[in-house]
Request: fold
Amino acid sequence: MRLIKSFQRSMFLLFTIAVIALGYGFYLAISHIVVEQSRIHHQSVAPVFSLINEELMYPLHVSQTLAHSKELKALMNAGTIDQAAIAAFLADLEKHLDLSFFAASEKALRQYNSDGSSFELTPGKVEWYFNLRTSPGDFFAQLGQREDVHLFLDLKVYNDDEVFLGFVGIGKSLRQFWQKFKEHKQVFGYDLMFVNNKGEILLSSDEDLMASSNRLVSLQELSWYGQVAKQLARGESLNSSLIVIDNEEFLLSEIYIDLLDWKLYLLSPLKSRKADITRTFIINASVVFVLIVLLFILGHFLIRYFARHFLQTLHQDALTGLANRSLIEQSYEKIIQAGDALSVILIDIDHFKSINDNFGHNAGDQVIKQVSDLLKQSIREHDVVGRWGGEEFILLLPGANLPLAQAVAERVRILLATLKIDHVEQQLSVTASFGVTYSELDVELKKVVAVADKALYQAKAQGRNKVCSLLNLH
Reply:
């Protein structure tokens, strides 16, 4: 949530600077009358880029980030699909990002939605899934859901072996789009429409032109199409074209949205402007349009920047800030690919359940955080520490042999045993059991962890607060 607020502040600052800078440019370029008229047009056009970012580009980049989420891939690649875990994952995303998410599983042939609902993907009933899974490309913007038409941003998901796992994405009702566009038209006075590469109108501020379950309106059906037909036939842009609708002049602006392969058309009424002022206005508006496009590109890269940071938050444990399992697995793969041997240490807080039972879960969380802080302070800069689950932690020690890893574990065990954790008006003490193993083979992390887990089991069997080790014999 903090990342999203930071993103919103950055975008607000970006467009605030744009409005100020462009307004000042108008003042220097043209007369006071043209400045005033151009400023009105600029104030009506500039917000549409914010609208595009908010309503289309931001959901698109979030869905692209989601398609690369290690956690979601693991859920969709599992031998048995954990429906509750997928539903919880999507619901958590909806809660934090205020968007509706879905995941369609190839293994289960079932679609899961962030509102908790799900349904079977049945041939003949859910045509989009079976049509798109064999289609070239990994991203699709599609209309669907007959009773309430939605725009769906669908992305294919693959596992590490490039095996198709299904689709993830975001769905938004066309009614939501229309309501936003209607509000913009009431404030800024222009009509807008989004057109796909077939010349079909998908979204518009005019409700009669919005796509429905029955039909899609084509540009060729519009009354003013004949005025620009030759330009379109020659492949020319319609940007800064003048058209007449019901004896009223409009300035037509065209924006190409590369990621969707769509075009956005803005129809701004010129009304009573004189011809010479109109011509001057078109020249200056074209300059403004170029500048705004540059700002749009800057906003696009800003969104990608925040999308990368959003992906990082998916790899952190929320309570401790340590690496979660997904990031631990990535780190392990990098160590193995670099050809380094390593030691792995599993750490389990002894009798943690009794802490929760006797002092409450807040005390348990405090213990978890204090232990994680101690672990971070006890390792080398290139070592990796993560939360493996519950009260269990893991250390990856690249280049460390078994005796060194045992020494590290023993030192940390002593530090933990002497650690005093303040809670309310008392101090809590904890101990932990350690399972250590060493591997110089290119094997899966789960196999190495299994050996460390056996050593950890021996430490518990010997009375806990112990360090036990086993060699990786895989």
Q: What stands out?
A: The domain at 68-174 is CATH 3.30.450.20 (Beta-Lactamase). The longest strand covers residues 164-173. Confidence is low (pLDDT under 50) at residues 272-276.
